[in-house]
C-alpha cells in the first residue's frame, strides 16, 4: 500500500534529522519562518515575491485544492521550497540542509507545486485589451501611428538538458542545446501568451505558425497586430521592420537621423519592440533556473518556462513596483551579466521571407499587411518632416 504524504514526510524528516542532528520541528521551519516574519525585501530576495503576493498565492493554491497542509510541511513551506529552487538556480541537494528535509521530500514537493502552478497558469495569461496601451497613447513618437498595436512577439532560447539521442534537433545555430520559446508581451511587461518546448533548431516562423494554429493558440484581435523583429515576416497581425534598413540600436548609433520613412519606422518600431527584451530580462532575473540547463526531464523543463512566465504575470499584478521590475522598466536595459550570452534573443536571420511557407498567406493578405506598414511609415515620416521644418523656421 502506498504511503501518504504525511507518512513520507515523517519518514524523510526523521532520516534527515538523524543525518543533521536536528530533532525539533521548529528548527526545520526556522528558515521559512524567519523569512516570512522578516521584511518584505527578505521575502523577495529568497522567495522572489513579497509577503503579500506569497501569502495570497498560498491561499489560491489551497482554495483551489491544489496544495494542502501536511502534518509536517505546510503549504507556505512547500511553496517556499519551489520558489527558492527556481529563484536561486539550486539543485535539490543544495537546499536539503537549509530546509532540513530529505532529497526525496524536497523533490516531491517541488514537483507538486510545479503541477499546481501549471494547473492555474492559464488564469495568469490574459489576452490584449481593446484600449490603446498607455505606452503608445502617451508618447507622440508612437501615437497615433501604432494605435492598433497590442504588444510585441519574440523568441528566446533557454538552455535545455536532453538525452544524447535527442540532442540533434535541440542544438541551435550557436551549437548550444536549447528550447526555442515564443512569447507575446504587453507593453507593461507581461506575457499575453507563451509557447515553450520547441527544439532549438526550429525556425521561428514555424513556431509562430504553430502558435496560431494549435488548440490553445495565440489570438490576435481583429484589426490589431503585434510587432515582430526581422526574424519574422510581415504578415497580417504581425508587423515586421523593413528589411535591409537599420533596425537595432547598434545600427542607429548616437545622433541617428533617419533619411527616409523606412528608417524612421524601423527606429520607432525597435523602441517599442524592445519591451520583449526587458520582459525576458526581468523573467530571467527573477528565475535564474531558466538560464542554465536544469537536470529534469524535458517535460519538466518546458513546464518550468510556462510556470515562470505565469508567476511573472502574477507578481506583476500583485507587486508591480518591486525592484526586479524597476530594473527593467526603463527603456535602457541595465547591464546585467548573462551567464549564457549566445542563447540570448536570436539575431535576425538574413532572409526571413524563406520561412513564409510556414504560414500560408495569400497574395491579397500579404499586400494588405504591406500596406498597413507603409501607411504607418508614411504618416510618421510626413509628421516628422513637418516638425523638423517647424523647428528650422523657429531657429
From TrEMBL:
It comes from the Eukaryota. Residues 1-25 are annotated as: Disordered. Its cofactor is a divalent metal cation. Pfam families: DDE_Tnp_4, DUF8040. The keyword Repeat does not apply. Belongs to the HARBI1 family. This is Nuclease. It comes from Perilla frutescens var. hirtella. The lineage of its organism: Eukaryota, Viridiplantae, Streptophyta, Embryophyta, Tracheophyta.
Amino acid at each position: 500500500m502506498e504511503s501518504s504524504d504525511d507518512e513520507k514526510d515523517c519518514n524523510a524528516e526523521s532520516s534527515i534529522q538523524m543525518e543533521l542532528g536536528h530533532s525539533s520541528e521548529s528548527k526545520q521551519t526556522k528558515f521559512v519562518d524567519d523569512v516570512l516574519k522578516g521584511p518584505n525585501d527578505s521575502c523577495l530576495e529568497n522567495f522572489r515575491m513579497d509577503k503579500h503576493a506569497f501569502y495570497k498565492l498560498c491561499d489560491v493554491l489551497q482554495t483551489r485544492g491544489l496544495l494542502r497542509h501536511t502534518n509536517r510541511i505546510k503549504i507556505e513551506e512547500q511553496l517556499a521550497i519551489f520558489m527558492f529552487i527556481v529563484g536561486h538556480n539550486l539543485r535539490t541537494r543544495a537546499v536539503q540542509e537549509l530546509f532540513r528535509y530529505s532529497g526525496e521530500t524536497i523533490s516531491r514537493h517541488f514537483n507538486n507545486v510545479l503541477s499546481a502552478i501549471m494547473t492555474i497558469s492559464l488564469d495568469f495569461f490574459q489576452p490584449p485589451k481593446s484600449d490603446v496601451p498607455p505606452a503608445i497613447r502617451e508618447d507622440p513618437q508612437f501615437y497615433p501611428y501604432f494605435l492598433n498595436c497590442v504588444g510585441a512577439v519574440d523568441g528566446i532560447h533557454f538552455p535545455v538538458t536532453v538525452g544524447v539521442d535527442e540532442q540533434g534537433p535541440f542544438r541551435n545555430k550557436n551549437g548550444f542545446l536549447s528550447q526555442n520559446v515564443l512569447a507575446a508581451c504587453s507593453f507593461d511587461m507581461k506575457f499575453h501568451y507563451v509557447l515553450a518546448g520547441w527544439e532549438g533548431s526550429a525556425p521561428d516562423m514555424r513556431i509562430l505558425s504553430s502558435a496560431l494554429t494549435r488548440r490553445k493558440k495565440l489570438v490576435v484581435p481583429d484589426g490589431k497586430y503585434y510587432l515582430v523583429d526581422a526574424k519574422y515576416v510581415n504578415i497580417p497581425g504581425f508587423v515586421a521592420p523593413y528589411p535591409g534598413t537599420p533596425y537595432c540600436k547598434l545600427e542607429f548609433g548616437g545622433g541617428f537621423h533617419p533619411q527616409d520613412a523606412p528608417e524612421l519606422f524601423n527606429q520607432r518600431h525597435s523602441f517599442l519592440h524592445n519591451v520583449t527584451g526587458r520582459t525576458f530580462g526581468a523573467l530571467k532575473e527573477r528565475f535564474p533556473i531558466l538560464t542554465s540547463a536544469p537536470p529534469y526531464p524535458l517535460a519538466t523543463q518546458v513546464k518550468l518556462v510556462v510556470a515562470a512566465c505565469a508567476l511573472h504575470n502574477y507578481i506583476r499584478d500583485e507587486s508591480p513596483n518591486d525592484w526586479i521590475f524597476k530594473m527593467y522598466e526603463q527603456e535602457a536595459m541595465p547591464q546585467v551579466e548573462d551567464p549564457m550570452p549566445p542563447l540570448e534573443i536570436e539575431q535576425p536571420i538574413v532572409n526571413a521571407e524563406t520561412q513564409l511557407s510556414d504560414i500560408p498567406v495569400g497574395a491579397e493578405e500579404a499586400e494588405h499587411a504591406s500596406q498597413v506598414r507603409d501607411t504607418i511609415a508614411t504618416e510618421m515620416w510626413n509628421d516628422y518632416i513637418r516638425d523638423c521644418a517647424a523647428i528650422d523656421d523657429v531657429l
